[in-house]
Amino acid sequence: MTSTEVIIMVDWSARSARSPAKRTKDAIFIAETGPAGRFVTYCRTRAEAQAHLAARFDTALAQGWQVTAGFDFPFGYPSGFARAVTGSDDPFALWAWLAEAIEDDERNGNNRLEVADRINAKLPGGGPFWSHPKGQTPAHVPFRKPPHEGHPFAERRRVETIATGASTCFQLYGNGAVASQTLVGLPRLQALRRRYGDALAVRPFEDHDAPILLAEVYPSLLNAEVRARQRPAEILDAAQVRVLAAAFAGLPPDRRDAILREGDREEGWIAGLGHEAELIAALAA
After folding, report:
1. Across the strands, what pairs with 34?
2. CA gap 219, 246 in Å, rounded
3. What does residue 72 show for φ and ψ, rounded to 5 degrees?
4. In what order do the strands lie in the sheet with 212-216?
5. Distance from C-alpha of 39 to C-alpha of 36, rounded to nearest angstrom
6. pLDDT tens across 59-115, in order?
7. What percent of the chain is modeled with pLDDT above 70?
8. The dihedral formed by the CA atoms of 207, 248, 158 and 208, expressed in degrees to the nearest 10
9. How many angstroms separate the CA atoms of 133 and 17, rounded?
10. What is the DSSP string of the chain?
11. Of 4, 132, 185, 249, whose CB neighbour count within 10 A is largest?
């Protein structure tokens, strides 16, 4: 990593209330490695996290630094889903649609379950979104996983059939569920796209060079390394993004750029998938 590069890794959260003041799991942790040092920031709400990221991006732009920011939720859905919802295959059409549909306030109150219910209602077959908290009874979101039938898209993205342990982007609640993080995460990324315009590019959807790059990551790619490097009393979520930031920071800039450009331009991709050994080696850089 050069002295003008910033690597940021974000462990996202779909909490529906503010996280506790004391650091806790399943909240938002943002790791940064760069000219300002190496540190992990704890955010209690998504609004706070978005504001923190914007401040860090603004600083980087003012200083002329290059930023790569990774987020641990899917940037896309199986091919055909965006068209079924928006009428377009463009993943950013879906980002924009969700940005209009999702309500997510300053204290994490949000309507993600209602939006999932709305999407299910307009699509044929059961689902695709499933699982909800006990006691809630959305009309079109089943509690248990329904057969994936009648949909013009697959149940999983191609990358989720390759990455060990990766969850489907349609499971809203329960162990390993990532669908809720995606529904409340993509609107926040869309807001950053609107704020920075051509100064920001999303890989692998966009090719143009930009001082701010966003990418999808999956901290479990380096699970054994994270466990080995986890500090005493360190929350696992924080350790994951700290180690992942260090790994991507250790890559030569041209290799990191090539890795970020890999993948499906409609469904998205997990940056670094298939390059785990290279990322582990980069931790020693």
Report:
1. 37
2. 12
3. -95, 50
4. 37-43, 28-34, 5-11, 66-71, 212-216, 200-202
5. 9
6. 999 999 999 999 999 999 999 999 999 999 999 999 999 999 999 999 999 999 999
7. 100
8. 0
9. 15
10. --TTEEEEEEE----SSPPPSS--TTSEEEEEEETTEEEEEEESSHHHHHHHHHHHHHHHHHHT-EEEEEESS-S--STTHHHHHHS---HHHHHHHHHHH--B-TTS-B-HHHHHHHHHHHSSSS-SSB---TT---SS--SSPPP--S-SS-SS-HHHHHSTTPPPTTB-SSTT--HHHHHHHHHHHHHHHHHHGGGEEETTT--S--SEEEEE--GGGGHHHHHHHPPTT--HHHHHHHHHHHHHHHS-HHHHHHHHT-SBTTTB--TTTT-HHHHHHHTT-
11. 185
Tokens representing 272 are: 């670094």
C-alpha to C-alpha distance for 82 and 176, rounded to whole angstroms: 23
List the structure tokens of 150: 């009648």
Encoding tokens for residue 18?
């503010």
The pTM of this model reads 0.97
